[in-house]
Amino acid sequence: MTALHERIRRDIESRILGGELAPGDRLPIEHDLMAEYGCSRMTVNKAISALAAAGLVNRKRKAGTFVAAPKAHAMVLDIPDLAHEVQERGQVYRYRLLHREICNAGKVDSSLEIEGDVLWTVGVHIADGKPFAHESRAVSLTAVPEIDDAVFDPDSPGTWLLKHVPWTEAETAISATAVSDREAHALGVADNTACLSLVRRTWRSGEHITAVRQLFIGDSYTLVARFGASA
Amino acid sequence: MTALHERIRRDIESRILGGELAPGDRLPIEHDLMAEYGCSRMTVNKAISALAAAGLVNRKRKAGTFVAAPKAHAMVLDIPDLAHEVQERGQVYRYRLLHREICNAGKVDSSLEIEGDVLWTVGVHIADGKPFAHESRAVSLTAVPEIDDAVFDPDSPGTWLLKHVPWTEAETAISATAVSDREAHALGVADNTACLSLVRRTWRSGEHITAVRQLFIGDSYTLVARFGASA
DNA sequence: GCCGGATTATTGTATAGACAATATACGCAT
DNA sequence: ATGCGTATATTGTCTATACAATAATCCGGC
Hints:
The structure is a homodimer.
Chain A lengths: L3 H14 L12 H8 L3 H13 L3 E4 L3 E4 L6 E5 L3 H7 L4 E12 L12 E11 L2 E11 L16 H8 L4 E10 L2 H7 L6 E11 L2 E11 L5 E5 L4
The first copy, chain A, binds a DNA duplex through helix 3.
């Protein structure tokens, strides 16, 4: 017993995805769909507005509704909380703090691109006693002054922030790099091992909160992005 | 002159993001919001339904509307068309085919996880004469028989597929790896250079169309995922 | 106390109609 | 043809109302 507006939406959606309606094609106007499905205009409007919100069609007053160009490029990347993910695999998670210092942003890793006074932490994420990720993080003291009182023993700074500080924008840059000797030592791997590098920076309504660089050992860690089947 | 339902939506959204309404909190019922904003129930409903569609709140009949748990960190990953991106930087793009063969999936790179008879291609993506990515791709011949007639001279197999075959689901796995000697040679880099590896598989309503593994040299290539500021 | 049915609060869906906003198309004057 | 104002088609928003679906709650019977 799916709702009518839902059936209309799916109907048109499948016509688009199946190629019956190609990008640029014009959809029937609301009045005609209204007749086709024998319902009121509000119902048709709800269905097509949903498609528009999903970016599948573009609507323009007086002109009509058109199938959008294949968007294709925007996939959903699931960025997990490390502690949570490790525990879900039945392993024991631990964070070990290697360094903690209050300093000016200029002193920390330049790839973090943060400014002002920060709390700088360096540590490793450990699963079942084995380090699997190296983390260097800077937290803005102007944005989050109370972090100075935080203790990072059971929780990593990331988990602490997740619990205490909401954010509104985030950006993650993903690249590959060879570990430096210091990082290799902390992770217990050979120098120059290939690592996946994530640099994530988060803001709260424009104010920079934190920047973090995480290094994951070689191919033992994989990020997955999906489009479509949201399983 | 923003629409009223939009103003209501943003109003409540900011109350949630600003922490005024914490996860688990109950929103006023539609009837009360209707009085608060002096509008009809349909308008309130449209605003809150949008929030529900975005996953910010959960709604339950009889129970009410509740602020959802902090979002599973789903960010939008922008996966670009290589040819397009290179040209946008003002460089000359070229694809060079190194190998082309029709064979059984078992013969190609096992990381692609595809089955049946496939067209297997290996090549490099070149910007301004310099190779920057290595690509190994398998295209299912049962799903796309016409690919056998395609010529990959101006376009890479990926661009050809993008133009000719629509898809409905895709999955991209991202990891870091050290290049093998053969790949290193094709890219003109030293053995064991750290590379970003993308393995993307796409389906059309359940049928596997293609799988591709792209290797990008070291830190000269970065993927970016964003949440919030959709700039 | 516990179970099962009735009550009821809340969201979900749909209708018919009205007016607003906007971009296209048309027609007219130059 | 060119430019300009007007008509018009199409979507955007909103209202007031109605009934359906769902699930928490209450209440009676045992």
